[in-house]
Amino acid sequence: MNIREELEEREVRDLSPYAAHARNSLGRDEYEPPCEIRTVYQRDRDRILHSKAFRRLKHKTQVFLSPSGDHYRTRLTHTLEVAQIARTISRALRLNEDLTEAVALGHDLGHTPFGHAGEEVLNTVCPDGFSHVEQSVRVVEVLEKDGEGLNLTKEVRDGILNHRTSGRPATLEGQAVRLADKIAYINHDIDDAIRAGLLTEEMLPREATAVLGHSVRLRLDTLVKSVISNSRGRDELVMDQEVFDAMADLRSWMFRHIYTNSLAKAEDEKAKRMLAMLYEHFLENIDTLPQEYIHLIWIRHDTEERVVCDYVSGMTDTFAIDTFRKLFVPVGW
Description:
Elements: H1 3-14, H2 40-49, H3 52-56, H4 75-92, H5 97-106, H6 115-125, H7 132-147, H8 154-161, H9 172-195, H10 206-212, H11 216-231, H12 241-259, H13 268-284, H14 291-298, H15 304-314, H16 317-328
Helix pairs in contact: 2-5, 4-5, 4-9, 4-11, 5-8, 5-9, 6-13, 8-9, 9-11, 9-12, 10-12, 13-15, 13-16, 14-15
């Protein structure tokens, strides 16, 4: 018996009967011989961690566009916080932490530069529409490794595809990531907004903080414990209704006051116009795309609009700004 087989035996022995066991995975689209050391979910996690799309997350906006301070979240630090919260939930419920971590690390790979502002404009200009959720799956299935994709298991791809609020992941590990994503961004976005001077703890809705707590630390503790205490021995992950409603109210409040109506979003319209211009430029100049994207048109027969959307959505904030400057800002002699 090799190490992987020992790990699979340990999963069967130690994990919850509702956990996703690696040996029972639905597998990959293309068969690969098993690894002697790592389970399929460990391999998926490692592939995501070493991908180019994962590395680019460090220069993509979470809420604050290209913040000058060192301590504001980026899309990468958000991803790491989601992974930490989801693993805490999974460990407490005896779920498969490797699958949980793989889904968490991959859930936002398809996010655009400039956060949801970038997603909105690409959804407008691209004939097929754009969703960062679906794009995250396209990144791992198609775009990584120069068009070969990462050949991840179906469980990981399902978790990535269904991590948004309306999604219904097929595994409890995917459900853990879906909840952890909300828990993470609501609380760290409050933390960043307080740091930026856009709000104070006292400005938050009292009805929500009375239930969840009056600090980021207390709210995280309340939310995570609610998931764990209400989900033990069940085939789905749930929260106490009062806690869930308070989280939903706090999320709605953040959308009204920070995500869509604050000084933090003052530059969004500029970012949208810039990405729209980049999209139109590369659509009119397909031959200037990197070769790996041109191959998607030649070999996969993807539409030019889809491939240009792939290229622009994959840019970091800084690369998008630099590319725009080179293309549209004149340089003096």
